[in-house]
Design goal:
By secondary structure, the protein is α+β, with helices and mostly antiparallel strands. The chain has one domain: Beta Polymerase, domain 2, CATH 3.30.460. Helices cover 48% and strands 23% of the residues. It has nine helices and seven strands, in the order αβαβααβββαββαααα. Strands 1-2-5-4-3 form a five-stranded mixed β-sheet, sandwiched between helices. Strands 6-7 form a two-stranded antiparallel ribbon. Strand 6 and strand 7 form a beta hairpin.
């Protein structure tokens, strides 16, 4: 088992111990739904009240992860209006980053209701749906994200297009979604 898979499972166990619903997103979700590709971090969305963050930080530190001081001090980052906290695991001279998005918006709560279980390294884990992964990739909109969307569209013949369209407008990615779905026709 490689370091990233071990990190993914370590946080899955940590979330289970704390009774925190989670879903894996990012490169690991792309690996589950499409073509395996290199990824160097682990990304989660969780349902966790902000007042429980100190509990999460303490549990993660107990398991050998580092919590940057600014987060311990109460700071919360944001990416595309989604609150984010970060962790790091140092192994044999390199670090593994873990990004955890707090599910606070209506969209993120819906994303968590739609999560699905897949197996990684023989262990079941929760993942965002393929449709939510596409929407998240459209929000991020980096070159790698567009390539991931292309891979997802090639690997998945059936998508819940009404769901994608329902959220594309509120998320501000409607034109981008139209563009990527046009490539399927």
């Amino acid at each position: 088992m490689n370091d990233l898979v071990g990190t993914l499972h370590a946080f899955g166990r940590l979330f289970d111990r704390l009774a925190v619903p989670y879903a894996i997103m990012g490169g690991w979700a792309v690996r589950v739904y499409a073509l395996p590709r290199p990824t160097y971090d682990v990304d989660f969305t969780v349902i966790l009240a902000r007042d429980r963050l100190p509990e999460l930080y303490a549990a993660a530190e107990h398991d050998g992860f580092t919590v940057p001081e600014q987060y311990r001090g109460g700071w919360i980052d944001s990416v595309a209006d989604m609150p984010l906290v970060k962790f790091r695991l140092y192994l044999a001279g390199h670090g593994i980053d873990v990004d955890i998005f707090l599910a606070e918006s209506a969209y993120q709560r819906e994303l968590m209701r739609r999560r699905v279980q897949h197996t990684v390294g023989g262990v079941p884990a929760w993942f965002v749906s393929v449709e939510d992964l596409i929407l998240l990739k459209l929000i991020a909109n980096r070159g790698r994200d567009r390539a991931d969307i292309d891979d997802l569209l090639l690997a998945r013949s059936e998508l819940d297009e009404p769901y994608l369209r329902r959220w594309a407008g509120p998320l501000g990615v409607e034109a981008k979604l139209d563009e990527v779905l046009a490539t399927r026709e």
